[in-house]
């Protein structure tokens, strides 16, 4: 059956492949979002980059939410609250960094730096996918009894 190991146990880490795919392609969409207006490319490419960012952000958000709910079970509401607070802080602080970054480096290169940061974060979900079952056993909130 899909989502189960050979022993028949479904692990929360099986919810992460879409998150990893979204994390891999998100830097491309962000870089395209910065380069299109900076290079005076057609507006339909800008709309395409916005649609791609929305699609990849949705892939990341839904996968992360389902992983959190499955991993923390009884404590999933508290864990989702922390994720929502982090997302709100990111949504507040990231737009404040863009104007100084684009003023200093230009529109294309400024968003290329942001895409590079996203690129540097790709190993995080891959590490959780690989070592997540081991790490969850070290916590009293996510341990499988």
What does this structure look like?
With 145 residues, the chain is mostly helical. The protein has five helices and no strands. It has one domain. The longest helix has 30 residues. The protein is elongated and about 55 Å long. The mean pLDDT is 90.
What characteristics describe this protein?
about 140 residues, mainly alpha, 5 helices, about 75% helix, elongated, single chain
Question: What's the gist of this structure?
Answer:
This protein is mainly alpha-helical and 145 residues long.
Helix content: over 70%
Distance between the termini: 23 Å
| Structural class assignment | mainly alpha
Number of beta strands: 0
Radius of gyration: 18 Å
Number of domains: 1
Per DSSP, what share of the residues sits in E-state strands of 2 or more residues?
A: under 5%
Give the uncertain stretches in residue-range form.
Answer: none
> Biggest β-sheet, characterized?
none
The 3D shape can be described as elongated
Number of helices: 5
